[in-house]
Structure formats: structure tokens, C-alpha cells
Amino acid sequence: MLKNIFYPTQQNAYIWLSSIYLLFILYLGKISPITVLFAYFIETVVIGIFNALKMFWSIRYGNHKARGYWLIIFFLFHYCFFIGIQSVFGFSLFRMETNSIFKEPFQIIENYKIILELEEMKYAFPAIVFTHLGKFFSDFIKNEKYKKFLPNEIMFKPYLRIFIQQFVVILSFFFLFLGKAGGIAAILLILFRWIIDLFFEAIKENSLLLDILSKKLANKKTSKEEIKKQLMHLTE
Questions:
Q1: What is the pLDDT at residue 236?
Q2: How far apart, in whole angstroms, are the C-alpha atoms of residue 183 and residue 185?
């Protein structure tokens, strides 16, 4: 089963390349450990943009026009509200650091602007965008998932991934600032995200991993096929 998760393929190549690139520029000193943390923190915004794009593709090219484009507006509204809450919490944590570069936690836009204007972000941020761009084209477009998922199904897909991501970022924060083990924390953050992304990517239609997990999770109330559908929805 591990081979099905970690073996490099054309479909998960962007995950491998992005992770190796981040580790390499971290090793070269082009980015600092805190920049890695900020890059993954701001990834929440990137996830939302690509999710809205997937909804648009589903409506425009998947013949799912019954609910209309207003769903994208609704998604952006509640997603921005969600980002606002988690951003205030995140920036409150970051301000615990003695030489914090951030303004008040509620100045969300200004704080995100500070992150994007950091010199080292020009090396780290493209890797984050590349990961989602790769998944969008190699998985969502290539496998025509816009025909399989309804816009209202796509709308709630980012939240599981974001919950896991923000938990790891917060955990890394305590290693970075309180444990003073910045380099180790950054490497662990990259590696953990690499494992999670590969695991999610391996759970695809007709995959061995999906079949194994659905067999183990199936019960009298929920069939194997229903479990498969739920897993595909959660890991999209």
C-alpha cells in the first residue's frame, strides 16, 4: 500500500517537485524556516481561489448549471469569513514572537500584504501555487472531475485539508518560536505536508488505496461504494 502512496507518478509529480524544491532552497539558505511557515499559512487563500475556479469549471463545462454562478459568490463569502477568523488567530500567535513584523491581528489585509512583500516569499510562494496548479490540471481537468462533482459538492471540499494544514502550521509555530528548533520544524513541516498531499492524491477513483480503505471502513449502515464516494469528496 505504501508504494501506491509514495511511488512517483505523472499525477503526483508536482507534489514531489514542490517539496524537493522547498527543501533545496531551505538548504541553500534562500528561505528561512519562518518563511516556510508563512508560505503554508497563506496557502489557505490559494486553496480558496482554486476551489472557486473548480466550481466555475463545473458550472461552465460540466453541465451543472442548475444552481448557477451565485454558488461561487456564496462560497467566497463564507470562505473569506472562515479565513478571517483563522487569520486573526494565526496573527495573534505570530505576534507572540519578540521581533514580530505584524500589525494588530485584526489588520488582516495589511498582515497578508506584509507576508507577500517579504523578500524570501518570491522563492517559496511559487512552489505553493505550482502544487495547486499541478493538481488542478493533472487531476481535476485531466480526469474530468468537473463532470463528476456538483458545484455544491466542491464548495465544502477545502475545509478538511485546511483543518489539517492549519493544525500542522500551529504545531510548527511552537517548535519554531518556543522550541528554537527552526530548521528542524521547517523540514518536518515540509515532509508532513508532502506525506498528506501524497496520501490525498493516492485516494483517487479506481485506486488500490481507495479500495482498501473503503473495505476497512464499510459497515452495515454504509456500503463500500458510499464510503468510496465520501473519501473522494473529502480528499479532493
A1: 67
A2: 5
